[in-house]
Amino acid sequence: MTQALKEQTVNKDWVTLCGIQDLVANSGICALVAKPSEQGEQLEKQIAIFSIPDSEEKVFAVDNFDPIGKANVLYRGIVGSNNGEPIVASPLYKQQFSLKTGTCIQEEAEIGAYPARIQDQAIQVYI
Amino acid sequence: MSKQLNVVVVGNGMVGHHFVEQLANLRESAEQVNITVLSAENRLAYDRVHLSEYFAGKTAQDLALTDESTYHDWQIDFRTNAKVTTIDRQQQQITTEVGETFSYDKLILATGSYPFVPPIPGGDQSHCLVYRTIDDLESIKSSASSSKVGVVIGGGLLGLEAANALKELGLQTHVVEFAPQLMAVQVDTGGGRLLKSKIEELGVQVHTSKATQVIEKGESCRYRLVFADGETLETDLVLFSAGIRPYDNLGRENDLVLGERGGIVINSQCQTSDENIYAIGECALYENMIYGLVAPGYSMAKVAAKHVLDSTSETVFEGADMSTKLKLMGVDVGSIGDAHAKTQGALTYTYENQPEGVYKKIVVSSDKTLLLGAVLVGDTSEYDSLLQYMLNAIELPESPEALILPMAADKPMLGADALPNTATICSCLNVTKGDIVAAVDGGACSVADVKSCTKASTGCGGCAALLKDVVDKELESRGVEVKKDICEHFAYSRRELFDIVKVEKITSFEQLIEKHGHGLGCEICKPTVGSILASVWNDYILDSNKVPLQDTNDTFLANMQKDGTYSVVPRIPGGEITPDKLITIGEVAKKYSLYTKITGGQRIDLFGARVDQLPDIWQELVDAGLETGHAYGKSVRTVKSCVGSTWCRYGVQDSVGMAIDIENRYKGVRAPHKVKFAVSGCTRECAEAQSKDFGVIATDKGWNLYVCGNGGMKPRHADLFATDLDDETLIKYIDRIFSFYIQTGDRLQRTSVWMENLEGGLEYLQKVIIDDHLGICDELEKQMASIVGKYQCEWKTTLENPESLKRFRQFVNSDKTDSNIQFVTERDQIRPATLAEKKAGELGGNIEIVDLTSNESPSESSKQAVAVMED
């Protein structure tokens, strides 16, 4: 698994974070992305990855940090939809975040949302 | 009308635009009234109330209230960059900066206000800015990009909003206020004090009672503020937010009557001293008052628009309520009416809870019958109710303090029924209950309909709950069935879903949503269905198709706490525990450095377990013979007991034995809400059974059963259901009642509310359960027997199943732990570090962040705690 961390570069790229066997259907898991910043410091970021087999996209990736509850918990939220938009509800205070855009539906808040895909049994996120 | 009326509007802020909108709607045609709008800014009207969202990523376009094509459609003649310089009142003509002239029959001044910049030497340097327009925000953004520290001068409402903006831009932020407290206009000293500490907790430093005397060159930063007391503060950026002044120069230069301290004087039709010139919004002075809020400005716009068209219009502006409710940097603040108790003879009630950060005050008339004002900081849940009391002069309850005290049992609920038709429901758009009733009479049959025809709740949205209440009540009173759909995905109530699941033998969410719902589900319907499936089939709740349905507590079989860690609660049936088990719990707590506390329900809570530690912790507990306590589920929690006849001098039955039997029988049973039991060994009631869903009290002939009580937010004493029962009958009755509740209760409905909603109440329940009036008792007992027969310790099952442990990893690709989880010690145990403590820890402050990564006990690890801070 440390392999995945090494492959990453400063530039945005498709990064392999785990395999499809790690996914939990209709639910979330969390991966750690380590990237050197432009200043060369090592930055770590937690990414929540959601598997929704019934959706067009199948997998989604957003920040794991809940900006309202201020804790790294979003991967533990319930996934669902709001007016057709795939969402995750924060397990802390239940605000819904769009899995496509990262926008919070109930309050002024936003999280990062990243393109995600399944490539040869691997889950890749563009980050 | 034969002649075309020429109306010229100077100013295109929120109020100016609202006037245009009103007038364009009211006029019969563009031929009847020609509207010209002149905006000094280079863009048309935008939403200034939500200006700070510009920093959160909103664009000028997102904030726009209108656009050129809309004005074209409305046939409005408009100019941007068109600053008006002169008014010729004789000729009824105005001239702009570039020399363009316009004739008017009616002139509307909606020029607004400008930020006041105190005359501080050095205050005119390039990084000294104000916060008013989109252009200002652009300047702030560009200055912030080369700044580290920012100061807002002025701790009023706008100042705090500006401070939030600086903070969001990543600056180390300070607020400097001349007065001894923040938001002196809206809140009192106590509220200001609490507000200050809450805002400081968020990392913004607040300096009150500070008068800035000069802004000079700084040493570590670009500037240095020197205060009257000699202290200094270094900063790269200064933002002035010291109040607003009416933009009244057009009135001043053209001999309209002004107030002593500025503002164009208007009458209740919003006319100035020249009857053909109106002033509205923040440039206008009505009865010596400038209204610096948008709602009164909108009212003025409405009044002026009507009067311009019809000089006999009876709509008048009579001042406006300045009550406000807002969230400043995440801190709830509410101010109603006479917040400072300035009314003669006014009396106050204050409630302050420093640990929780809550401050509430109400101001009442000398005879305690009317509410005059209120201040709420930290919790504004009573704002709507209090506002209705004040606006409608509703008589206060006998003990007005009940309105703000937490857990006051007799807190009067000010429901839709209590409000008169004149009650304002939506104060932003001035919609009364009468308007809503009229809309329902006119055929509106949903909240959405009422919203679209009255515009209620389309402003700040703070009245949404009350609006729904009023609409529902009105619809119900007309015999319209109000939808009880649990959410957008299912057009059914919980009870209906329960019946569907049972009758159609549905065993998964997928089956149910495919046949009877749509979409992907949500955090409301999924756990509800999860609970129903558990109640009907009682399968293992972490089966792969049920994992996605569970709230975090159920998924992780533990309770999530504020920092994302969990608490662990082993079951201790009846509160009886062997020393060996007690030692195991203690050893586990010590090994994993968990905070330990005895709960209110006679159990032991272990806090601070990271998600990845839960399986290890539980493995040890399960190995020692302990079971999950289901403290996380909407399920049976504790059965509290006293020691009963075995030890107690007074006990008449074995209450511990009964409590253990009950707990073991119903443990793990899922219900619409959590369910608690208690058994007391005599009428002294040491187990407090009458505050529980099911309370059992021993008599010398058997057991008395009490039902549907609860503690918590709205306590209710349980009702005596049956007396002197033998053991067998007691269990039979509980089986039946519990089963009946599980099948018919609404989502998250407690037994107390469930019974209150049963038509016929207690008597009906007795008929159903004791007399088997509906002939369903057999079925109820069977259902309960099938659930209790399938009990399993969910932790034990989970530990045996590697697939279900997947989600207990913090990261799928790393063994690291979540670095955001940090603890400090308090009273010899850990607790979550506050944001400020975490920040201080990062900066190398004198805060001891406990390092638990190597699972050492706090006492050892605090020795390796981090660093020291200079000050």
TrEMBL record, chain A:
Species assigned in the record: Thalassotalea euphylliae
Domain of life from the UniProt record: Bacteria
Alphabetized Pfam families for the sequence: Rieske_2
Keyword annotations: Nitrate assimilation, Oxidoreductase
GO terms, molecular function: 2 iron, 2 sulfur cluster binding; nitrite reductase [NAD(P)H] activity
Domain Rieske-like [2Fe-2S] positions: 14-125
Protein name in UniProt: Nitrite reductase (NAD(P)H) small subunit
Gene name of the encoded protein: nirD
Listed GO biological process terms: nitrate assimilation
InterPro entries assigned to the protein according to its UniProt record, in alphabetical order: NirD, Rieske-like_NirD, Rieske_2Fe-2S_sf
UniProtKB/TrEMBL annotation, chain B:
GO biological process, one term: nitrate assimilation
Domain BFD-like [2Fe-2S]-binding: 425-471
Domain NADH-rubredoxin oxidoreductase C-terminal: 323-391
InterPro entries xrefs: BFD-like_2Fe2S-bd_dom (IPR007419), BFD-like_2Fe2S-bd_dom_sf (IPR041854), FAD/NAD-bd_sf (IPR036188), FAD/NAD-binding_dom (IPR023753), FAD/NAD-linked_Rdtase_dimer_sf (IPR016156), NasD-like (IPR052034), NiRdtase/SiRdtase_haem-b_fer (IPR005117), Nit/Sulf_reduc_fer-like_dom_sf (IPR036136)
Cofactor annotation comment: Binds 1 [4Fe-4S] cluster per subunit. Binds 1 siroheme per subunit.
SUPFAM superfamilies named among the record's database cross-references: FAD/NAD(P)-binding domain (SSF51905), Nitrite and sulphite reductase 4Fe-4S domain-like (SSF56014), Nitrite/Sulfite reductase N-terminal domain-like (SSF55124)
Keyword terms of this UniProt record: 2Fe-2S, 4Fe-4S, FAD, Flavoprotein, Heme, Iron, Iron-sulfur, Metal-binding, Nitrate assimilation, Oxidoreductase
Nitrite/Sulfite reductase ferredoxin-like domain ranges (all copies): 561-622
Annotated binding of [4Fe-4S] cluster, by residue: 642, 648, 682, 686
Pathways per UniProt: Nitrogen metabolism; nitrate reduction (assimilation)
Entry annotated with the keyword Iron: yes
Domain FAD/NAD(P)-binding as annotated: residue spans: 6-298
Alphabetized PROSITE patterns for the sequence: NIR_SIR
Top-rank taxon: Bacteria
One GO MF term: heme binding
Cofactors named for this entry: FAD; [2Fe-2S] cluster; [4Fe-4S] cluster; siroheme
Entry binding sites for siroheme: 686
Domain spans labelled Nitrite/sulphite reductase 4Fe-4S: 633-756
Keyword Lyase belongs to the record: no
Similarity field: Belongs to the nitrite and sulfite reductase 4Fe-4S domain family.
NCBIfam families: nitri_red_nirB, PRK14989.1
Protein name in UniProt: Nitrite reductase large subunit
Biological source species: Thalassotalea euphylliae
